[in-house]
Design brief:
112 residues, alpha+beta, 2 helices, binds guanosine-5'-monophosphate, binds zinc ion
């Protein structure tokens, strides 16, 4: 856990979140500023800064996050969806605790 990390605080229950899934390794909750009708984040409980700081030891965790996306998207009523992992400031990352965005619903998403 990292003391100043907003997602660590969510994992610990210190900041409220609208959770849609939780197990020993990951938590998923609705994004506070959704960009589409449905927009949630899949977040490992372990504090890992970004995709760029992952190594082979994170392979199982990353696979789990990826496989959870279609399962949770379906539960949320999505037929199609987009996944996004912003990495580093230049990649648009604002919260430095790795997370995967899953979003969709409504109109077809633009190409970019
Ligand atoms: P990033 O730009 O790092 O990929 O995305 C961070 C995301 O976390 C943003 O979409 C932002 O809306 C979301 N977010 C930031 N703080 C909170 C929070 O306290 N609760 C929830 N549910 N989402 C948050
Ligand atoms: Zn964290």
């Amino acid at each position: 856990m990292s003391a100043d990390c907003i997602f660590c605080k969510i994992v610990q229950g210190d900041i409220p979140s609208k959770n849609i899934y939780e197990d020993d390794d990951v938590i998923a909750f609705h994004d506070i500023h959704p960009i589409t009708k449905v927009h949630f984040l899949i977040v490992p409980k372990q504090h890992v800064e970004s995709l760029a700081s992952c190594s082979s030891q994170h392979q199982t965790l990353l696979g789990k996050m990826l496989l959870l996306a279609p399962e949770l998207a379906k539960q949320q009523g999505l037929v199609g969806f987009r996944t996004m992992i912003n990495t580093g400031r230049e990649g648009g990352q604002e919260v430095f605790h790795i997370h995967m965005h899953v979003f969709g619903g409504g109109d077809t998403l633009p190409r970019t």
